[in-house]
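=== Structure Prediction Worksheet ===
Name of assembly: unnamed complex
Input type: mixed (protein and possibly other molecules)
Chain count: two
Listed entries:
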Amino acid sequence: MKKNSIIKSSLYGVTLFLMLLVLYSGKVSSSYTPIPLLNCNCPPGFKLNTDNKCISKNLYNQYAVRNNAGVGGLKSALPEIRDGFTPQEIDLGRYLFFDPVLSADQTISCATCHDPNKGFSDGLAVSQGIDKHKLKRGAPTLWNVGYLKKLFWDGRALTLEEQMQGPLFSEEEMGNTPENLIKTINDIENYRKLFAEAFVDRNKNAPIELNEILKAITAFQSSLVSLNSKYDQYAHGFHGALNQNEIEGLNVFRSFVARCAECHTPPLFTNQQFAVIGTPEPDGLPLDPGAEVPFNDKTLRGAFKVPSLRNIEKTAPYMHSGKFETLRETVQFYTDGRGHAVPEGEDLLIHWHIWEPNLTDYELDRLVDFLGTLTDESFTPKVPAQLPSGLKASI
Amino acid sequence: MKKKSPLLKILGSIVLLAAGIFLGKTFFGQKSVDTVPMPSTIKYRNVGLTKDTTRVASNQGFNGKIIEVKEGASIQEAVKEANPGDLIRVYPGNYSENVYIDKDDISLQGVVINGEWPTLDGKKEINDAFLYSGNGILIENFKIINYKGNGVMGQAGNNFVIRNNWIIDTGVYGIFPQYGINGLIEHNVLSEIEDAAIYVGMCDNVDVLHNEVFDNVAGIEIENSRHCLVENNYAHDNTGGLLAFITPGLPIKTTFDVIFRNNFVVNNNHENFGAPGSTVAGVPAGTGILIMAADDVIIENNIITGNNNTGITIVDLATGAPRANDPSSEGNPDRVVILDNIMFDNGNDPTGEIKTIMLTQMDSKGPDIFAFGGGTGSTIRDKNRYRTFGLDGYGTAQISDTKDIPTMMTPSPVPPRSVSKEELGELTYYGVCAGCHAFGTRLIGPPTEILQAIHHNNPQGMVDYINNPKNLREEYPEMPPQDYLSDEAKMAVAEYILALKE
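=== Predicted Assembly ===
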């Protein structure tokens, strides 16, 4: 203890000295510089390079990139991530993400439906927008969203910037308009300061532009990385990370009988393709045509993007419209017969991996055990205590 | 009646004789099994540097221990005990288990004695016999029967050898490497598989040599894979013999650079028993070779006879799998090259669309070679000798043989890792430690500069702490052990942190 306190006090001394030095050198330099308000460190999982950009670093980078799809087995490289944002852009994005000022009536933030305490989802079967509008689909998790090449359940957006304009400017979701959003943000002095700090290449007094708002939120969302689960420890070679039940579950998961891993492919647990699996809608809802609509392609009727399973334990209920309350019900769906829940009169092109694997109850229980090993929230960002708008963070 | 009947006497002497033979065999007839040869590993012949294919540049030796598994024991337990470089020898007997291998460089060798095989029997209850994800896996001399999923399935393991296995009715696939690079599948016998007996899926650089496949839906299937050589195989009595495909909707989108050479593709007329919805369920019985959407496929010196629909079918995705749509898969078979092949007696009983199309040609027989749909740049060496349909656009082949290509395997092993020790330290620091430690600020644990002060010049001390943390500071929560990191990663990250400058 004594040794520690000596180290501690000497460190405090050094720190104090350094701070004085910085203050002093600040005084001798000529012009006034504003105090930084945004975090100048990268979030965990990212390394700051000499260009002030945050570059993704994790143990999956040790595996050779063999295909750009980022699919394979235990020791396979991930797909390419969106990185290279500055720490300031990421931190500014964090404020915007939690700020309800982004919605028309200033009650809904991104975090309302993508709540860090609920696996960056909202715990609802289908999400709720402005004026209590009941939406058609559930909010997907944002964990590892920086790796995804298609966004929305129906894959209609290719970038996060494109995607977020959906909810921001949908009358049923956040109800805003680009003009009103730009005006609102520009009217808040704190945001003018923060944007000037984050976007250094432009005139400090220039008005905030929509693409800067979109970029900052994209930067924050791309920093939400979850790759340190018990499963990951096993994958990197520590076989003690999973117990016997969980290993049995892993073996069911990747067997060609259950075929889960064929679409929910490690290491991201999605192959990012569309699949028609024919899940039932909640009572009273008609069949959701999914990707058929944006792609104007009959073969994609009822198709949805294969979702990642990371942190899946945290994001009940399951499927695009939340039909299943539990993981156990969800895995049961896959063994109840090919197309068993397709409404009469529909001729869906059910995916070839949906078949009749005849999984036993024991195997289904083990699958649920295994899915629980995909949980890791160690890099959860902090909810801002105060927002630049003065509003309360809405989650 | 004390006197024994002659019949009983004779019976008694037979029983005595049998007992004597049994005892004699038991005591004197046991074969010595200390002559089991070591399995041969992949031989890298530096293809491209020299055409002298007998010269072996390198191959991996066995440097580990030999673990023996005898009947009653578990192969999986041996895998758990094994370290990279070890050889697991499995003696004859019944083993009903699922063996998974999430380690590198493990070899499993069955020992066959007096025709008795080590047999993995899934009893139609167990999913897969062998599942591996490690690199450098070798599996040879096993009899594998009655599984629900696969005989051998690989997920992303590179440098694999699957050899001399006898596989019957193991469900969907017999041998199925997926996402693997550089592999050898040779001398296996496979039958009664409800999809492809040998299925090379989303792989690169695989040789499939000297296998016999029969009574399956598909014999050998190269799907969404590149650089594959299929040579000297005997594919008979399947629904379809040899297939090169693109299946739409998969994350890897291409098939190209495939050679079908010196194979027997004979009497592939089995009724299709594929699962509804599977791609092969649409393969018509009587298909010798099927090329669907694959590019740069060379068909050379095969004997293709007795296939009742067609000898060779070449189609685009729109024709072959019209119900599946994937805009990111290019669906035309381009630059197919047909060299010399022996083809006769094909098309005796055409079915479906091919029958309809041939009837419009006033022909009740299917052709030797049938092409339909899109595709450009395809050629054939001697079009005149075959009965063909749809080959009007085929030019004359620019090559006469492929003898310059002895193998598609890589000239040296695919390296397991691509990072240096320093990089591994960096990845571990930012990927794991940075959740709690950073320079100059307090996160959950102490700032990085304090870690440097505590373990100054003592990386081993930091490794010890990582393995077994002691709560040194009251103001911080105790660190959970990070002992799941590999020894290599622990030392790398300790050295990295100690050398790190803000």
